[in-house]
Amino acid sequence: MSVAYNNHFKQYIKAAFAILQTISLLYLGSLSTVSIAMEAESAAAAYMYRYKTESGEQTVGFQVPAHAIKHGYEILNKRLRVVKVIPPAPTEEELAAIQQQSMTAKEEERLLAAFSSSADAIRARDRKIGALDVIIKITQSNIHRLNIEYETLASQAANIQRKGGSIPDLLEENMASIIRQINDADNFIRGKQTEIDAIYEDYGDDISKLQKIESRNKSVSAASN
């Protein structure tokens, strides 16, 4: 054989070998893909689900229909043994109860952070009311003083009128000013009394809740002993 023929034959063999390698890799790759898919399908098929149909009958399948999820279902292995129980979704009433419990827990946490006990809340309430009572008493004292001043000015005005004279403008203005101050002081006291009523109402709710917490804790403690 000539050298040219040998070289041509070698190149042909190399090309064929390269093609065979490519085909082999593609084949192995496809096998790997098929194997992975089969493993995934096998894993998915390893579990089955027992649930209730829309008519209320129990059945087993590889998937749980949407309508059955809210009623809960069981996950089964290949031997149809229960490996996990998925409880039913909570009803609207149960969700409302859960939300209420959460709100109650947050409210109790707020109260216990603010007050160590119901007695502590009562003391805090009384301190605020006591401060307002002092302000009211001071204002009442001012009203009493203004009334005395007004009576003095009114007596002066009466004496002037008895003598046939006319009441001076300054005296009338002073009397009118005192009346305005007395009215303002009365309104101020009514406002402070409204604040006291609001404090009693606000603290009343907190004190009642704290007393319930204390009563519950005592019951739990007594039951544990």
Task: Provide the descriptors you would attach to this structure in a database record.
single chain; 225 residues; alpha+beta; four-stranded antiparallel beta sheet; 5 helices; rod-shaped; disordered N terminus
Major sheet characteristics:
4 strands, antiparallel
Structural class: alpha+beta
Q: Could you spell the SSE succession in H and E letters? A: HEEHEEHHH
The low-confidence runs, each spanning 5 or more residues with pLDDT under 50, are 1-9, 23-44
Number of strands: 4
CA(first)-CA(last) distance = 108 Å
Mean pLDDT: 81
Radius of gyration: 46 Å
Shape: rod-shaped
Number of helices: 5
Please estimate the helix content: over 70%
Residue share in β-strands? 5-15%
Major β-sheet strand ordering: 2-1-3-4
Account of the protein in words:
The chain is of the alpha+beta class. Helices cover 76% and strands 8% of the residues. It is built from five helices and four strands. A four-stranded antiparallel β-sheet has the order 2-1-3-4, with no helix packed on it. The protein is rod-shaped, with a radius of gyration of 46 Å.
Describe the SSE topology.
Blueprint: H1 3-45, E1 48-52, E2 58-61, H2 66-69, E3 73-76, E4 82-86, H3 92-114, H4 118-162, H5 169-224
Helix pairs in contact: 4-5
Question: TL;DR?
Answer:
This protein has 5 helices and 4 strands, in the order H-E-E-H-E-E-H-H-H.
